[in-house]
Automatic annotation (TrEMBL):
Protein name: PglD N-terminal domain-containing protein
Site (Increases basicity of active site His): 146
Source taxon at top rank: Bacteria
Assigned keywords, A-Z: Repeat, Transferase
PANTHER family documented for this protein: ACETYLTRANSFERASE (PTHR43300), UDP-N-ACETYLBACILLOSAMINE N-ACETYLTRANSFERASE (PTHR43300:SF7)
Residues at the active site: 145 (proton acceptor)
Domain (PglD N-terminal): residue spans on this chain: 6-89
Signal peptide: none
GO molecular function: transferase activity
SUPFAM superfamilies (UniProt xref): Trimeric LpxA-like enzymes (SSF51161)
Pfam families linked: PglD_N
Amino acid sequence: MDSEGLVVVGCGGFGREVLDVVDGIEAQDGVHRLIGFVDDHPSEASRAALARRGARLLGDTAWLAASDAPVRYVIGISSGAVKRAIDERLTAAGKQAATLVHPAATVGFDVHLGDGTVVCAGARIEGGVETGRHTHINMNSTIAHDATLEDHVTVNPQVAVSGGVHVCTEALLGTHSTVLQNLKVGRGAVVGAAACVTKDVPAGVVATGVPARW
């Protein structure tokens, strides 16, 4: 990540996990980048949690879109559709996304991380993986060789994505789920927690169970 200031969009639970990633990066290189958070609908609980961390709530996404400050942004929201809408709005306003990788993550050879990708602590990404814009790879998940994760995908904690898997735009992989090798998860599909995907998942479905069904 470069030396520009950083704004996190969304101050809910995952937004504050993104703050942990930022803290890890700043502790490693000694450069303070975080300016604060923006959120269109911050809850009182989220406001209080930011205050405990000493982080500022700067305003809403309209404030960020209109700001002339030299900042980059990351989205700390898990919904693929919401990420896409925010991405489109801020890109149209000329804002650029940052890519964050926690120092305790492992990234292999020939990995290409799209703008706005966030890789949390303990994640393992093997060689040949490619992510799109604003892909989230959460704590202790593993992404095996030659997998592709398209724009606005969310990988929850402790997910296992096998080699050659293709996860389409806005899909979400639930905690502890597994996708076996060379399979495809369709656009906007949700793989439920602890599900095991053994065949291609169509777009827009919710897949649950072992083996996963919809």
